[in-house]
Amino acid sequence: MTNTDHVPAHQRTANDAADSGPADYEAWREARWDEIAGPNGKARVVANGRVTGRDAHIIAGVPGQWSTTENGALTVSVAAEDSVTVNGEAVTGTAEVPSGSSLGFSGGRVGFAGGADGAYGLVVMDHEALARSGLSGIDTYPYDPAWVFEGEYRAAPEGRRIDVERLTTPRSTEAILAPVDLVVTVKGTEHVLSVLEDMPGQRLVVFTDETNGTETPDIGRWLVLPLLEPGSTLTVDFNQATLSHHHLVPAVFTCPLSPPGNHVPMRVEAGERALVYADD
Predict the structure, then answer these.
(1) Could you tell me which residues belong to the region Disordered (predicted)?
(2) Whole-angstrom Cα distance, residue 106 to residue 91?
(3) Does residue 224 carry a pLDDT above 80?
(4) Separation between Cα atoms, residue 186 and residue 172, nearest integer Å
């Protein structure tokens, strides 16, 4: 590891060029840092939740009761003292929250709601949270082209779900949609890894390897993959293995753990290793 491996790509100087990977990898690192620390970065999230069905939902850290109507619209019920706004309008009582609405809460917190047909997600952010955390970068292994492979999506049984542990407190188990498998040959050995679709439209391989618990987190890491049909080939780049969002805000991001069989029995010395904080 060099002492610049944790520095976001956009903060590097010309003297750090020797530590950089190819341009597309550097662009990916820029985008990854923006995903974490940008204006709507996940390090700023202080609460989130899902609202499905007509029963009232109470979301930790978010005022009001959230539910859906018979027609599948999202609503919130709040008191005036809750200081909730929807698209800039103060809400008292029960109000509809159209998908894509901007939300306001006390203490300068903001949020948004999205979804349709009786299933919605709610995210609340505090733009001061990143500064309070001291997060300054992500420590990674040096880029290594030897960790880039060609993989293939293999069809799974229609509607397959896999029981996967989730990082709730206490831990819980959830049957998560796993629409395909990723087949990839790594260092001469074929691996078949279950691909999760924990959120609609997101393909995710959660895997463990022999670096976990020493150089990387013991809960494993992620490969975020594209939406492609079974039989499609795709690039599998372990240099883009990421840390779980759980490390950013454990109480908020109750991410899935690695499914059974998603262990790669070797040291995967590529990708992200740890978050870096200003006082480290």
Answers:
(1) 1-23
(2) 13
(3) yes
(4) 31
